[in-house]
Design goal:
Blueprint (H helix, E strand, L loop, with lengths): L8 E3 L16 E3 L11 E3 H8 L6 H9 L4 E2 L2 E2 L6 E3 L3 E4 L4 E7 L5 E6 L6 E11 L5 E5 L4 E4 L9 E5 L5 E5 L6 E4 L8 E8 L8 E5 L4 E5 L3 E5 L9
Antiparallel strand pairs: 1-2, 3-6, 4-5, 4-7, 7-8, 8-9, 10-11, 10-13, 11-12, 13-14, 15-16, 15-19, 16-17, 17-18
Length: 239
């Protein structure tokens, strides 16, 4: 029997915990395609239009919006309703002068924070890996699926780059070090912002930890969850 191919939908009750949706409103929800974000860390563009922005009610209505080229993700027109939307992606709808940045709420779910037009021209992207390719050029692998080529490697894994969209040019960079402002992307402290107070090295039994000071208290979280936002103040609007 021939393989029927990948299922394009999934039950709402089985949707990733990052999806900020009403679980019992209807039975199915769009499954994201393979793309810049992992399925368990993203939501589909259809979910964004139907559930988060309430700009459409059905897949057909969402497709009409996208087919007219009215919606851009990171400065590029997107027409696939199953395109994954993840942390720090910039969604622009110039025709109605609306711009949003995808962030995590305090429950670790993808939420949209409205920003102005000026802030929609750039995003923050975290370096998750580096690859040395021919002629001494280094390829930076970013958390959002982007790959950036640089001649001189002055960055470390875990650093965050401020890049313009859609041309992906590096505007600034922020290292994971004491005194910088950071955002927590996972764990029980997801959605919190604080100043980095220090790094606790890991052991064979425990991952490295970061110590952050928020307005309310000092706390520890996995270093992997820490996303640097800037130095003295956040480089992006988060509320």
């Amino acid at each position: 029997m021939a393989n029927k191919g990948e299922t394009k939908s999934m039950k709402r009750l089985n949707a990733p915990r990052t999806a900020k949706i009403k679980r019992k409103e209807s039975k199915f929800i769009a499954r994201t395609i393979c793309g810049p974000h992992a399925r368990n860390k993203s939501v589909s563009l259809l979910t964004v239009l139907n559930d988060l922005l309430n700009l459409s009610k059905t897949r057909k209505e969402a497709k009409l919006i996208l087919n007219e080229g009215k919606l851009l993700v990171d400065g590029t027109i997107v027409k696939d309703v199953r395109r994954p939307i993840g942390f720090m992606d910039v969604i622009s709808i110039p025709s109605i002068d609306k711009f949003y940045r995808a962030i995590y709420d305090r429950h670790g779910r993808i939420a949209l924070h409205e920003i102005d037009r000026r802030n929609s021209g750039f995003k923050l992207s975290k370096i998750t890996g580096k690859t040395r390719i021919k002629k001494g050029v280094t390829q930076l692998n970013m958390h959002d699926g982007k790959n950036i080529l640089i001649e001189k490697d002055t960055y470390s894994i875990g650093d965050v780059l401020k890049i313009s969209v859609p041309d992906n040019k590096i505007v600034d960079s922020y290292a994971l070090k004491e005194g910088n402002i950071a955002y927590v992307t996972g764990g029980k402290h997801a959605g919190q912002t604080g100043v980095v107070k220090g790094i606790i090295e890991g052991t064979m039994m425990r991952s490295p930890l970061a110590v952050l000071q928020s307005k309310e208290n000092e706390f520890q979280t996995r270093k992997y969850y820490v996303f640097v936002l800037g130095t003295k103040e956040p480089a992006v609007q988060l509320g």
